[in-house]
Design goal:
The protein is α+β, with helices and mostly antiparallel strands. The chain is about 45% helix and about 15% strand.
């Protein structure tokens, strides 16, 4: 296809005749290599016209949103369900975070591109942040993988753009800021994917977003404030920093401090906790590379507690273990979190992995430039879990912290999402589907505005259900 004909097709509506999108020959990359992959992306526009992605109507739903949420109750700790609903009812933003299952069904109700990547599955704007690589370098990346599954790339981008609109509303930033930030996320994704489409496979795989990238386009005032926040949180979120806040000494023995809203011991005896820990780690060790087993075996469990975490994860079974190295100088916190089927499996088919902990671990390693060396998975009494370090130099922003520079932050989130997708998908095909014009952005941004309004309506329905007694909600722990 010549440059003239490509621009002509790009300027036409997505509903152009099929012949306008017929592949007329392989594309020549800037590198000089001939590739037919771009034709796959242009063909995908027939399956899912880009501007048509903007359409959303609740009439497409076969199951009401509240029933989707309640269908998740059986796999969760029943005692914590009231807390889950109380947190979700607190704001449309909290509702969106907990309603990934609702949005998954709604995304699946419309045609999709068929261009498959390893989806994050919950790519909202605060599920991006800084991690320390094994070399202790701060990298910016996607950070949550509970719902990860291979699926169409645009579903992640739709959730990201929607979340930006919802967060902007919660922080009262105004419609103009919301639209600018969502547009920045889509542009960041588009521009990065175009670059990845021209790169070699190893160059894509090795690419990293360092901690200075989110600060580059900020004014000096915001950049300095953000840099101070990163430095402060980096000190607090080391294992030593966490130990100073969460560990106390009782009768000469170190114990994780308890909090009925965050950490409890469930009345288990010390011996019972030891047995539970040993059962977990016997199977966990088999899931990690052999050369890391020696490292893990140098740590001894000191204490264990149950945790309440997040909004969407409330009710999932989560354990926090305090470990101590043989040196006596190295405390390590290990978190073991329940993994259930991804909310997308109902629509995209079951995961190839029998253990959902393995699904999460493999998805994380596929999407991140560098992952926690302790990542692993296990199964105990029929329940799947994944294992990771807890707060090992993980810097997670709050909505308030990024409100002053939401468009700039959103642009880097789009870049990071494109990087993750390029590692597992076909960046040439995705870039060709997106194209040079505004059709793709118009579709994603239109959907994001419409679905943000739907989220507010669904949140109001949950609040009403709580008020009517249909759903029990209470701010209490165990």
């Amino acid at each position: 296809m010549s440059d003239v004909s490509a621009d002509t097709v790009e300027s036409r509506p997505d509903e152009a005749s099929p012949s306008a999108l017929e592949p007329t020959g392989p594309r020549v990359r800037a590198s000089g290599r001939v590739s037919a992959n771009a034709d796959d992306g242009r063909w995908a526009r027939r399956r899912a016209p880009r501007r048509a992605a903007a359409h959303w109507s609740a009439e497409a739903r076969e199951v009401r949103a509240l029933d989707r949420l309640r269908a998740q109750e059986p796999v969760r700790d029943q005692a914590l369900l009231p807390l889950r609903y109380a947190r979700m009812a607190s704001s449309p933003w909290a509702y969106l975070r907990g309603a990934a299952a609702v949005m998954a069904a709604d995304l699946a109700a419309a045609p999709h591109s068929g261009l498959t990547v390893q989806m994050c599955g919950d790519a909202h704007v605060l599920n991006f942040g800084l991690w320390a690589s094994p070399e202790r370098q701060f990298l910016f990346d996607v950070r949550d993988f509970d719902e990860t599954l291979p699926g169409p790339f645009e579903w992640d981008l739709k959730r990201l753009a929607t979340s930006i609109n919802v967060l902007a509303g919660t922080e009262r930033l105004g419609d103009a800021c919301a639209q600018d930030a969502a547009a920045a996320a889509v542009a960041g994704y588009r521009d990065a994917m175009r670059r990845y489409a021209e790169m070699g496979e190893l160059d894509v795989w090795y690419d990293r977003i360092t901690s200075d990238v989110p600060l580059r386009d900020l004014t000096s005032e915001f950049a300095e404030a953000a840099a101070r926040t990163i430095e402060k949180q980096a000190r607090k979120r080391t294992h030593h920093g966490v130990a100073q806040r969460l560990v106390s000494e009782q009768d000469g023995v170190r114990r994780i401090t308890l909090d009925p809203m965050k950490r409890v011991d469930e009345g288990m005896s010390h011996e019972e906790r030891i047995r539970a820990y040993e059962q977990v780690y016997d199977t966990y060790l088999a899931s990690i590379p052999a050369h890391l087993r020696r490292l893990v075996e140098r740590f001894t469990r000191v204490d264990s507690v149950r945790q309440i975490v997040g909004v969407g994860s409330v009710g999932m079974r989560v354990w926090l273990h305090l470990l101590e190295g043989d040196s006596g100088q190295q405390p390590v916190f290990s978190q073991i979190k329940q993994a259930t089927a991804s909310v997308y499996e109902e629509f995209l088919g079951p995961s190839e992995f029998e253990n959902h902990g393995e699904r999460v671990v493999v998805g994380q390693r596929l999407m991140q430039s560098a992952s926690d060396i302790f990542l692993g998975y296990t199964r105990v009494d029929g329940t799947d879990y994944y294992v990771r370090q807890y707060r090992d130099m993980k810097i997670i922003p709050s909505g308030t912290e990024i409100a002053g520079y939401l468009p700039q932050f959103a642009a880097v989130c789009g870049h990071a999402l494109a990087k993750s997708h390029a590692r597992s998908g076909d960046p040439e095909a995705i870039a060709a589907y997106i194209g040079k014009g505004e059709a793709f952005a118009a579709g994603i941004l239109g959907y994001a505005r419409a679905y943000a309004a739907q989220t507010s309506a669904d949140h109001a329905d949950l609040v009403a259900a709580v008020a009517d007694g249909e759903v029990e909600a209470a701010e209490r722990g165990w």
